[in-house]
């Protein structure tokens, strides 16, 4: 493999992994508070279409990202009312949200199907972008790629160094105990759900405004579900989410390259296309089998409604 | 419990010390029950006041009201002379009220210092806080390592964390909800010393319990609740357990009748060199256990929880089958690899520790729960079909014979109070006329009257020739009903002694793993409170 090919594949891998990282880290916060939101796919779709529409009308991609974030949060707020205020079942509500969001996005996005956006130029970080091999791939990227890295470091600090993160983990582990020592469990869960929705919206916006600057029905293509799976298989640890997301992106790009290269290989292309999905899951399961890790990191109350007694 | 002599301790002079907390006419009405009715109460600085009452007497509800977890329906509360309405636990803490819960409110996946930080106002730096924890734990004799995770601590250590968490808030009123139910006698001693020191420093303490001898040893004054009402006040040191029991349950304390054991019964349960590695990372490995339980005797196993009791129960019940047959022998059959159902058909009955979830399915009716263990034994299955009328009739018999207060066989298991559900479960097992009964904590969290009833039923079963194995942390209970007693510590079993030939103090020492001839004594110097270390 020559150097420029390596650089361009690394570049593509990072781009492919970025929306997964943003969405999965948002869901991680969501689930650490004990709320399981299966509606990620729907929130991403709404984020993607809102971001595309606003970018198209205003010409400003950053207004688009903000709109995507807002759309994701609006969907999450709806979910929050259902499962946190009305105590509806989280799994059923989440599935409904996923289906609803994808459908609504297709409906809203109809007028935008045939239009294209101007590609947003990447941001080049001086000096380190000149590094051989990796410089062009890592440091001449879209702003949201840098954002995903900042989100990762911020989340590591938040979960393990900040008081708010400690409270969040406590609420996810035992809402009854957290209530007994005086924390507003429902409010904290709302904030976590809204954060998850916001990140899903940003992830969707990345797809429709930066990754492929266009809108098409079904363009989220299961990334919301993969992000959900990543969080679980990464045992709710941010670093493993990153590893899983880039692994997924890397395998995705590699198999696309193999399919597009015209290499004559005796392997069904359908199986090749499914490679990123199962490769990611196999690897994450393999590195996360330790029972200790699972027990220490999984939010015990995940998916269980909690109603504080008055 | 080894009880030190009743305190000649300084009684705070009622006239000289102002009341720290006064309750007037407190009431709490839930949709189906009046939990508290016109409760009046006062506690002064330096006073240790017992709140005495059976399960369901309204003690816990009252404490939750004081601590702001729930709101009273009516009544007034005065804190240091000023009327207050406690809005939340955080508000209670800001007033200076601390509470140690019966069911710990600790977060298992967090460390000690993180747990403490969660309960403190402001944003204390964890390193400084860890230092303060070490200081406080040294000052009050409550050793605990602030960096450890809660799930790796023993129950006694967890309670220390709860207490330290309260002490760091400099409480002026400390509420202790049934704190000794999980402690060894020695640990109870230390706890009482800590509480006395706190009271001497001017802290008021509300001590909730139904253990009369503890209250006599520790408390200056007592308020007795029954059925949500105050039925009396007394000075425990001047009362006898019997007179306090009358106030608490409204009648004489029931005693168990216990005949001499019948010697020479056949072996119904034999553990022959049972070893088993736990697959739970925080579990205890069982190491070379030998035990015989004969027909017509009750054998008790004492120990601090977390020393292998769970694992032993799972291995005996069949929940965790072994690789080999011989280590567990039930009624003469090598049963190590049999499933729980097969073991039951050999004549074994089993009362697990957790009532809800293992002993009974919470959302299912009592009749369905009866079906779960008695289906084959009581002919509730015919040609592969269930005979529900038989299940209902059997559940009805359990309810009648064991005085279970409930809405009938169709009532959901979770709708029963703990004591009544336990009576139902014990009844379900005993009425199947087992040849061997294995029960864990048969009276845990059950009120005095129901506990005495359950113990008597177990003794009667043994008098009918059944072999009984009881695993319990309550030494009083074991000494009351058992013919022979052993101790489990760090996954090993002590020699078995006749109950009359040993004492609570000896067994208390054995609970640290230090019995005569214990070859592992040297490698387990601090075994009392660190079974997982």
UniProtKB/TrEMBL annotation, chain A:
Predominant cellular place of this UniProt entry's protein: membrane
GO MF, one annotated term: transmembrane transporter activity
Location relative to the cell: Cell membrane
Record keywords, A-Z: Cell membrane, Membrane, Transmembrane, Transmembrane helix
InterPro entries xrefs: ABC_transp_permease
Bilayer disposition of the protein: Multi-pass membrane protein
Spans through the membrane: 6-28, 35-56, 62-84, 91-109, 143-159, 190-212, 218-236, 243-261, 267-287
One cellular-component annotation, GO: plasma membrane
Protein name: Inner-membrane translocator
Organism: Thauera phenylacetica B4P
Automatic annotation (TrEMBL), chain B:
PROSITE patterns: ABC_TRANSPORTER_1, ABC_TRANSPORTER_2
Short name of one Pfam family: ABC_tran
TM annotation in the entry: none
One function term, GO molecular function aspect: ATP hydrolysis activity
ABC transporter domain ranges (all copies): 21-252, 269-515
Keywords of this entry: ATP-binding, Cell membrane, Membrane, Nucleotide-binding, Repeat, Sugar transport, Transport
InterPro entries hit by this protein: AAA+_ATPase (IPR003593), ABC_carbohydrate_import_ATPase (IPR050107), ABC_transporter-like_ATP-bd (IPR003439), ABC_transporter-like_CS (IPR017871), P-loop_NTPase (IPR027417)
Classification via PANTHER family: CARBOHYDRATE TRANSPORT ATP-BINDING PROTEIN MG119-RELATED, GUANOSINE IMPORT ATP-BINDING PROTEIN NUPO
UniProt-recorded name of the protein: ABC transporter
């Amino acid at each position: 493999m020559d150097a420029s090919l390596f650089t361009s594949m690394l570049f593509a891998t990072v781009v492919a992994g970025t929306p997964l990282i943003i969405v999965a880290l948002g869901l991680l916060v969501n689930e650490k508070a004990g709320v399981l939101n299966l509606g990620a796919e729907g929130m991403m779709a709404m984020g993607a279409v809102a971001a595309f529409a606003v970018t198209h009308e205003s010409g400003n991609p950053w207004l688009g990202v903000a709109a995507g974030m807002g759309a994701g949060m609006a969907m999450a707020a709806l979910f929050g009312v259902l499962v946190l205020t009305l105590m509806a079942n989280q799994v059923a509500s989440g599935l409904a949200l996923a289906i609803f969001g994808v459908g609504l996005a297709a409906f809203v996005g109809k007028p935008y199907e045939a239009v294209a956006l101007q590609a947003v130029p990447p941001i080049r970080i001086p000096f380190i972008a000149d590094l051989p091999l990796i410089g062009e791939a890592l440091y001449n990227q879209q702003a949201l790629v840098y954002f995903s890295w900042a989100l990762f470091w911020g989340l590591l600090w938040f979960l393990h160094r900040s008081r708010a993160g400690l409270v969040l983990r406590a609420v996810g582990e035992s809402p009854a105990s957290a209530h007994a020592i005086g924390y507003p469990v429902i409010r904290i869960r709302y904030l976590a759900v809204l954060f998850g929705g916001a990140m899903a919206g940003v992830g969707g916006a990345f797809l429709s405004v930066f990754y492929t600057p266009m809108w098409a029905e079904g363009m989220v293509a299961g990334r919301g579900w993969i992000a959900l799976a990543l969080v679980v298989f990464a045992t709710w640890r941010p670093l493993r989410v990153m590893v899983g997301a880039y692994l997924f992106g890397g395998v995705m790009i590699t198999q696309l390259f193999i399919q597009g290269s015209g290499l004559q290989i005796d392997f069904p292309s359908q199986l090749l296309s499914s490679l990123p999905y199962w490769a990611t899951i196999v690897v994450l399961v393999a590195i996360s089998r330790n029972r200790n890790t699972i027990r220490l990191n999984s939010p015990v109350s995940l998916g269980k409604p909690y109603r504080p007694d008055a | 419990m080894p009880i030190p002599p009743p305190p000649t301790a300084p009684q705070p002079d009622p006239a000289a010390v102002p009341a720290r907390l006064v309750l007037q006419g407190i009431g709490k009405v839930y949709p189906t029950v009046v939990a508290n009715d016109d409760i009046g109460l006062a506690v002064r600085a330096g006073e240790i006041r017992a709140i005495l009452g059976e399960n369901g007497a309204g003690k816990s509800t009252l404490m939750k009201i004081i601590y702001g977890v729930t709101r009273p329906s009516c009544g007034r509360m005065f804190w240091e002379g000023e009327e207050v309405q406690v809005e939340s636990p955080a508000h209670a803490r800001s007033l200076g009220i601390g509470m140690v819960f019966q069911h710990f409110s600790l977060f298992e996946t967090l460390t000690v210092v993180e747990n403490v930080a969660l309960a403190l106002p402001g944003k204390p730096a964890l390193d400084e806080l860890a230092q303060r924890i070490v200081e406080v734990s040294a000052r009050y004799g409550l050793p605990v390592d602030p960096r450890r995770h809660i799930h790796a601590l023993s129950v006694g250590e967890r309670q220390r964390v709860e207490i330290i968490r309260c002490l760091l808030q400099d409480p002026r009123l400390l509420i202790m909800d049934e704190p000794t139910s999980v402690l060894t006698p020695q640990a109870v001693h230390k706890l009482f010393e800590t509480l006395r020191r706190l009271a001497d420093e001017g802290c008021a303490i509300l001590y909730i319990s139904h253990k009369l001898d503890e209250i006599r040893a520790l408390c200056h004054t007592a308020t007795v609740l029954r059925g949500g009402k105050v039925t009396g006040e007394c000075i425990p040191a001047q009362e006898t357990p019997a007179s306090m029991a009358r106030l608490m349950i409204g009648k004489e304390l029931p005693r168990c009748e216990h005949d001499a054991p019948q010697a020479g019964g056949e072996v119904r349960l034999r553990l022959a060199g049972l070893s088993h590695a736990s697959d739970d990372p925080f579990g205890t490995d069982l190491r070379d256990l030998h035990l015989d339980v004969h027909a017509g005797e009750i054998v008790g196993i004492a120990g601090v929880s977390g020393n292998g009791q769970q694992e032993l129960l799972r291995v005996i019940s069949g929940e965790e089958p072994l690789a080999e047959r011989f280590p567990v022998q039930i009624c003469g059959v090598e049963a190590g690899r049999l499933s729980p159902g097969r073991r039951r058909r050999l004549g074994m009955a089993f009362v697990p520790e957790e009532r809800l979830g293992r002993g009974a399915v919470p959302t299912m009716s009592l009749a369905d729960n009866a079906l779960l263990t008695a289906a084959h034994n009581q002919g509730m299955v015919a040609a592969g079909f269930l005979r529900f009328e038989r299940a209902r009739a059997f559940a009805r018999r359990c309810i009648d014979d064991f005085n279970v207060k409930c809405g009938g066989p169709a009532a959901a298991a979770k709708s029963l109070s703990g004591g009544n559900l336990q009576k139902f479960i014990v009844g379900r097992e005993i009425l199947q006329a087992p040849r061997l009964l294995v029960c864990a904590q048969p009276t845990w969290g059950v009120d005095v009257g129901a506990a005495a009833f359950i113990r008597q039923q177990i003794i009667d079963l043994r008098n009918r020739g059944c072999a009984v194995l009881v695993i319990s942390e309550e030494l009083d209970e074991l000494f009351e009903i058992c013919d022979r007693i052993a101790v489990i510590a760090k996954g090993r079993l002590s020699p078995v002694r006749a109950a009359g030939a040993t004492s609570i103090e000896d067994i208390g020492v054995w609970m640290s793993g230090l019995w005569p001839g214990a070859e592992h004594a040297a490698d387990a110097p601090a075994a009392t409170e660190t079974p997982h270390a």
